[in-house]
Amino acid sequence: KHKHQHQQSHVQRPHTLTFIPFLSSSSTMASNHKAHNPLQVSGALYNYMLDHSLREDPVLNKLRLASEHHPYARMQSDPAQVQFMNLLLKLIGAKKGIELGVFLGYGTLAFAQTVPEDGKVIGCDISEEFVNFGRPFWQEANVSHKIDVKIGPAQESLQALLDTEGPNSYDFGFIDADKTGYSTYYELLLQLVRPGGIIFVDNVLWSGTVVDPNVTDPDTEAIRAINTKIRSDDRVNVSLLTIGDGLTIAVKK
Length: 253
Hints:
The protein is an alpha/beta fold. It is 36% helix and 17% strand.
């Protein structure tokens, strides 16, 4: 969920970042990379992509449209990103997962629809009010029995899961909560997720501010730190993608 994302009234669907290729000679690893001209995604092109790929369940679509009227709608997960994550979860046969940052429940609903009938999605959030927004849609989609919401600090919820269920007991984790807690959540999920499981980390490009040396607030610095940490973490295979607001996929070895 990204506090920096801006809505534009003439485009109903959220925008992905627009990327302009730039490699500074002073960049740490610039000499190791060739300049590449990535696609610059306009609102029209983004909507074209959704029109030709997005396959939302009717209730999932209904929840997304309803959330557009919420005061914090800018924090809603990107639908293309959510669909991509669930595609990967199907490929690994995911059955149990943990979501840190339920917000209005869009991603939670999509995860619950992806896991099998006896699967489970643990949704961690600190706001009962936000979570309650999504509950009627979970019920309408007949997946409420797959969702177990934990209200409270994410670190405490994760530690409790580790204490009761033990390591390697989950197939995936999705980090989309307070940015200063990212490193702690990542370490706990690395214990909870099985080898071959996936840890998704959201907002890792933070509207592009990660490359702006003038931006040094705690959230931005925390995101830079987790990006650097995962890049050199031999415990996972990793890819950082420019989908949504930046998504890191870390597969536990």
